[in-house]
Amino acid sequence: MNEPTGGLDEHTERLATELLRERLIGRTIISIAHQINTVMDSDLVMVIDQGTVSEMGEPQELLSRKGMFWQLFRGIKGV
């Protein structure tokens, strides 16, 4: 899925994400996202920079590394 919730407000995005998770339980989902919140519940995140994988791992692991994913998260959250 490419930005499955890109045009939705925060409340509707949350509802749509919960519905997708319920309906697709036990299936592999590949999602292309530009919004960090879209991937925070993912098992595995791959950060691609100019066509090259720069980081890969669980979201919390990537945040702890303070690499590109952390920088993107920090920019969104204003930390």
UniProtKB/TrEMBL annotation:
Q: Which domain of life is it from?
A: Eukaryota
SUPFAM superfamilies from the UniProt entry: P-loop containing nucleoside triphosphate hydrolases (SSF52540)
A Gene Ontology molecular function term for this protein is: ABC-type oligopeptide transporter activity
Offer a single GO CC term for the protein: mitochondrial inner membrane
* Record-given protein name: Genomic scaffold, ProqFM164S02
* Origin species: Penicillium roqueforti (strain FM164)
Which GO BP annotation is one of this protein's? oligopeptide export from mitochondrion
Signal peptide residue numbers: none
